[in-house]
Specification:
Layout lengths: L2 H25 L6 H8 L3 H7 L3 H23 L9 H16 L1 H11 L7 H17 L3 H19 L7 H16 L4
Helix pairs in contact: 1-2, 1-4, 1-6, 2-3, 4-5, 4-7, 5-8, 5-9, 8-9
């Protein structure tokens, strides 16, 4: 396959994944069917199935797409965080804050979509392992770093499960406190 064909195939997959995410964002996890994704994306059902032969393959692709997007946003934010004791973790705080505001409905839908298939989360776990390794290389205070990360996970969990009791303003205050704790003593 030549470079142009590979790029076109990647573009097709990306468009299908974006359409699937928009579908569950708008209509919820139960709406995720191959037929609905085909209609949403403008691809034929055969075109969707060519790229994602099963619904599980589609879901795994969506998780991988979101994980790669999350990692890319952290990499893009990291240069502005170089004064932090852990630039990667500081970028994670910033990106997670943005994602919880902009992507909370996607997190809820993805949770419902893969609830009985935890192995579909493996692509995101791989991203998290790479981020963990980067943080371990940046700071010796792993306890502090993991406590901050666990706080981020807790905020995400409560949003994904629709059990958050924090207003947007209270949540913003938590993110500011996490930033302060990360860099306490660095300035």
């Amino acid at each position: 396959m030549n470079a142009r064909a590979v790029r076109k195939a990647q573009d097709s997959k990306s468009e299908i994944l974006k359409s699937a995410l928009e579908l569950i964002r708008r209509s919820g996890a139960p709406s995720l069917t191959i037929d609905a994704v085909a209609e949403e994306s403008g691809f034929s059902k055969g075109g969707v199935l060519y790229n994602f032969p099963t619904k599980d393959a589609l879901i795994r692709g969506m998780v991988e797409y979101l994980g790669n997007q999350f990692e890319a946003e952290i990499a893009a934010a990291r240069p502005q965080c170089l004064k932090s004791s852990s630039p990667t973790l500081r970028a994670m705080i910033d990106v997670t804050e943005g994602w919880l505001m902009a992507q909370r409905d996607v997190a809820r839908a993805m949770l419902a979509t893969k609830a009985d298939r935890p192995e579909l989360s493996e692509p995101f776990i791989e991203v998290k392992n790479r981020l963990k390794a980067a943080i371990e290389a940046e700071t010796d205070d792993h306890g502090k770093a993991w406590a901050i990360w666990a706080s981020l996970e807790g905020l995400h969990f409560s949003e994904a499960h629709s059990v958050s009791v924090f207003s947007d303003a209270e949540q913003a205050a938590v993110f500011e406190e996490l930033r302060r704790r990360l860099d306490d003593g660095n300035n």
